[in-house]
Amino acid sequence: MKTIFYSKNVFYQNKFHKGNLIVENDKIIDFIYGDILDNAISYENDYIIPGLVDTHVHVNEPGRTDWEGFETATKSALAGGITTLVDMPLNCIPVTTSRYALELKMREIKNKLHTDCGFWGGIIPNNESNLEELLNSGVLGCKAFLIHSGIDDFPKVNEEDLRKSIPIMKKYDLPILIHAELESFEGQTENYNNPRSYSAFLNSRPKEIEDNAIKLMIKLCKEFDAHIHIVHLSSANSIDLIKKAKEEGLRFSVETCPHYLAINAEEIQDGQTIYKCCPPIREKNNNDLLWEAIKNGIIDIIVSDHSPCTANLKLIEKGDIEHAWGGISSLQFSFSIVWTEFKKRNLPLELLIKLMCKNTSKLIKKENIKGSIDKNYFADFIVWNPNEKFKVTKDIIFHKNKETPYLGRELFGKVKKVYLRGKLVFDENKFSNPLGNFILNEVI
Ligand SMILES: [Zn+2]
Question: Which superfamily does CATH assign the domain made up of 51-366+393-410 to?
Answer without folding.
Answer: Metal-dependent hydrolases (3.20.20.140)
